[in-house]
């Protein structure tokens, strides 16, 4: 796949006309997805997909096109030519964009984390065997994910990671269940067995007759998975530099100093320990970590190149949506799943 | 697409009970003017295929963006391998599933009409942006549109052949105002809440021209407004909030795959159980809910679903009584109940699952004026801003952008942050009045999320305004 991407980038280089700059982001995966319900297989399948997001710049004008690729360069060159044609036609009608920003410091990188995972069919067999007699529902996703960046300034970035993510719920009855996740790079039957045994033990607790609590104040323990849900909500614009600048972030009062979290609360965009690439769609590299909340106070935000230009801030390589991709707590643990899948819409 | 596809399909080789090929070819263009700055335009071209196989009682799929004959054959082989290996552990015996063999086609309204140019779109969006940025308290605003065309082809080893062409226009406008520590956002029917099949004629139906100034004015009114009061009161929900109410507390609970447990690891389950169909009182006598894929301009109209079943209008709830679920052919076979043609995938790389499509409330006989006049103490709410509902789609809490008190049968004070809470199983029984055709709007959302791996799909909701009695209402300071 890396060879294909490099050849594709060379084709883009050769396709440029004087005065033009391109950047491109490559996004591909070869994944197995297996849904399970009632301890059986509901929907097993595989997806092989490749996309290129091509961004053409001339002066201060720019536009982008994202298109699916076959993987055969001889056929894909037709799509590339068509994309350049549409982009050039489009640029001729556009005004200058005052917020255009793209990486001009060439910082190439390569990160490959391959793993030899057991075949998905083998994993599913062991999962379902271990859940015999239980009402298991869940999903197994596995395979390589590829991200690439290239531009006409010569920058090349490659990120390849093979991983798996199994998420499953064991149901007691109705809506009472325990949910467990096991994700990583090397499947370990022993680790899975430990997690399944733990899930079984927690499931037994659900058989204890429920006690209804009266409304009021209680000291509550939130499991890591519950914290993930809460942190996930903050990701919807909470840390966005643009949302903070336009007072749409739920944390703008924290930014103003009018409110604060408990001093024990801390969040960091922890790229170095996550599975997201260390570069973003416009080619900017990401720092290993971006502190966001320290001792309950907002100390940083996620600033995309475009927001940086608009609000005179420094970008820290955030994606266009300025959403965390590897949000961690104060102790730098990654909260998000170990596997990412992208919808192309 | 069709000729070469037929040739390739006829050359595919598979030893299986049944196989199918589904090809999706979508083109989308996005234009946006934010704070009077035209944002760079983008286009996406997404094309790929899914091969599905039934073999030995098992089922499998494989999707690929390689549409060469070799690419399709490789995907078919992979799907067949999945079908064979999954057979001994399969939840469903694929030998009992229907083998679609229908032929037919479908086209959205104005599919062949010339679309607007980029220049025309940017001129309109720039004008609305200029009008929206009218006050220093307005800190962010944007006008945007997504136009999309799609071609879907479905071929089966039993001779099935379906071709469907779609065209969508989805404009959006939002304004954010901020003052004295308070932020209020007002949108035109929600983010991408205006979404229909067909062409640009929909802009006039929704008054998009001139909406920049109107929406900005409403955002500023909200900044100056008091919080919605707390209390139990009659509540008038306009169509653009009814969309959310229908979607979350009728649509999702009636999805048959949720009832069958497929979604319990992610999207959730349902308070509805199979024994309820045919007898359960879901709402008051005034509640009539249809699955209607035949309304031409509605977002999810089609002639066939993605499993090749012909789509027809059907009542899900009639005079308040629950009749049938939102379940496609496979779920119907599993559950032993009659459903509708709603097995849908959000693209070529995801398998069909039970989805809402067009889920509508049939209009009643009350005008908006009559509904307001009939409320002594209540509140009108419009345009969803937040939603929260439990895993079984029963207990909910929804918030709206816009509220206005109704006192003595008249609209009075504008209020901000109007919220209400309820329980699906009871809420629809408090349906007191249903608006007539004049209050009905054909809306929807392109972003209904569900499934593992996740899928975002277009759904349509046509609804009149409705009055609910004795609703638990609260404001932003609660």
Report on this structure.
The complex is a heterodimer of chains A (345) and B (478). Chain A has 345 residues and is α+β, with helices and mostly antiparallel strands. Chain A has helices at 2-15, 73-91, 120-130, 189-205, 224-234, 241-245, 252-256, 305-311; strands at 20-37, 40-58, 61-68, 109-113, 135-151, 156-173, 176-184, 267-269, 290-294, 297-298, 327-329. In chain A, strands 1, 2, 3, 4, 5, 6 and 7 form a 7-stranded mixed beta sheet that branches. Chain A has a 4-stranded antiparallel beta sheet with strand order 10-9-8-11, with no helix packed on it. Chain B contains 10 helices and 24 strands. In chain B, a hairpin with a 2-residue loop joins strand 1 and strand 2. Chain B is an alpha+beta fold and 478 residues long. In chain B, strands 1, 2, 3, 4, 5, 6, 7, 8 and 9 form a 9-stranded mixed beta sheet that branches. Chain B has a 5-stranded mixed β-barrel with strand order 10-17-18-20-24. Chain B folds into 2 domains: 2-224, PmbA/TldD superfamily (PmbA/TldD fold); 231-474, no CATH class. Chains A and B meet through strand 1, strand 2, strand 3, helix 2 and helix 3 of A and strand 2, strand 3, strand 4 and helix 2 of B.
Q: What is the terminal-to-terminal distance of chain B?
A: 56 Å
Instruction: Kindly report the greatest chain-chain contact and the residue count on each side.
Output: A-B, 68 and 65 residues
Radius of gyration of chain A: 23 Å
β-strand number of chain B: 24
Approximate helicity band of chain A: 25-40%
What is the helix fraction of residues of chain B, given as a range? 10-25%
- CATH homologous superfamily descriptor of the largest domain in chain A: PmbA/TldD superfamily
State the secondary-structure class of chain B.
alpha+beta
Please tell me the overall pLDDT of chain A: 92
User: CATH class of the largest domain in chain A, anyone?
Assistant: Alpha Beta
Taking the alpha carbons of the first and last residues of chain A, their distance comes to: 22 Å
Largest sheet of chain B: 9 strands, mixed
* Mean residue pLDDT of chain B: 96
Approximately how much beta-strand content do the residues of chain B carry? 35-45%
Oligomeric form: heterodimer
